[in-house]
Every structure is written in structure tokens, then in C-alpha cells.
């Protein structure tokens, strides 16, 4: 299975890339994947040119093809002005509208304070829902104080497990129980009417 990681970190080293790498490693422990990382920092000029001339450069075209052909996607952005970065949004704006339809996506973000953690729910999840991706239930946010603290690794492992399950085509739901009796609705309704 092909797993593509899109990282919108701007600095080197980058906490955004660090979180992306941890998520990818966690997915790799739960499923056999072929990994490709797309660093948006390296594509910034080509993304801007794509907006003005309508054509992706060579590196951007390869990145867009990788995302389109992936079996699963990890998308990680730093928080800028209480939302995803402009570079992150611009990349997904130049992606073909149908490229993520039905594709499993794990969303994640990094920021300086835990107060921005809702960026996952008010910015990233709606954007990927609009693109018709299947976003895993657990998003991962890492504030500065989360690095090395208890809790981050558990969220990383849970989200990675959900993505790996979707990539394998399995339901992330609980196993099917075979000890339940299924009663047709009409039969149940008739029984309720006769009892009343």
C-alpha cells in the first residue's frame, strides 16, 4: 500500500515534519506501506506559478500524482492565524477536485499552544470533507508542551491504527457480534401491536 505524507512545515528542523514522521512510522508498524513524503516548503514557488499559469511544474506534478495515487494520506500543517497555513491550503487548492474522493486521510497539526487544537475540527476536517476524503476519527494536534509529554504517543498510535485499518479496507468499527438475534422489523412491530 502506498502512504503519502504531506508536510507543510517551513523551518528546518520542523516540529510539523517531526509529527508527520512519527505518524508515518506508527502507520508503518501497523501495516506494510511504501512511504513517500511531500515537503510543501520545497514546492512553494511551483504552487504559486500553478495559480498564475495553470500548469504544475515538474516537482509539483510529481507531488500531485503521488497524492492522487496514494492508498492513504497523512496531512500535517503548522497553525498560522488559528488555521492551516496558506501553503498547505494552496497545495490542496491546486489538487484535482476528485483526487481525494474516498481516500483515507489522517489530519494533524502543530502549534505553540494547546488553545489552537480545535484547528483540526474547524479547519482541516471540513476542508477534507469538502474534498470527499474519508477522514479518520482521531486527529492529532501537538502543541509545544506535548513533545516528550504523556499522551501524544497514544494519540499518534490510535490515529495511525485507524488510518491503517481504512487503508486495508477494513472497518475501524468493533468486530461483528454473532450472538445477536436479528428480528425483521415487521415481525417485531406485529409483536408490539399484539402485546399492546
TrEMBL record:
Pfam families: FMN_red (PF03358). Keywords: Flavoprotein, FMN, Oxidoreductase. Gene3D superfamilies: 3.40.50.360. Residues 1-147 form the NADPH-dependent FMN reductase-like domain. One of its GO terms (molecular function) is oxidoreductase activity. NCBIfam families: LLM_duo_CE1759. This is Oxidoreductase. It comes from Streptomyces adustus.
Amino acid at each position: 500500500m502506498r502512504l503519502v505524507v504531506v508536510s507543510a512545515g517551513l523551518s528546518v528542523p520542523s516540529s510539523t515534519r517531526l509529527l508527520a514522521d512519527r505518524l508515518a512510522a506508527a502507520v508503518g508498524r501497523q501495516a506494510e506501506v511504501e512511504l513517500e513524503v511531500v515537503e510543501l516548503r520545497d514546492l512553494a514557488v511551483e504552487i504559486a506559478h500553478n495559480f498564475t499559469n495553470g500548469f504544475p511544474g515538474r516537482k509539483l506534478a510529481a507531488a500531485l500524482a503521488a497524492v492522487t495515487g496514494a492508498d492513504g494520506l497523512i496531512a500535517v500543517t503548522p497553525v498560522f492565524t488559528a488555521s492551516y497555513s496558506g501553503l498547505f491550503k494552496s497545495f490542496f487548492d491546486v489538487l484535482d477536485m476528485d483526487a481525494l474522493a474516498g481516500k483515507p486521510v489522517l489530519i494533524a497539526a502543530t502549534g505553540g499552544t494547546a488553545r489552537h487544537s480545535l484547528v483540526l475540527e474547524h479547519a482541516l476536517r471540513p476542508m477534507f470533507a469538502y474534498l470527499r476524503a474519508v477522514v479518520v476519527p482521531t486527529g492529532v494536534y501537538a502543541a509545544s508542551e506535548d513533545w516528550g509529554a504523556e499522551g501524544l504517543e497514544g494519540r499518534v498510535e490510535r490515529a495511525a491504527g485507524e488510518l491503517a485499518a481504512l487503508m486495508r479496507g477494513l472497518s475501524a468499527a468493533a468486530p461483528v457480534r454473532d450472538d445477536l438475534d436479528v428480528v425483521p422489523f415487521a415481525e417485531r412491530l406485529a409483536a408490539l401491536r399484539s402485546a399492546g
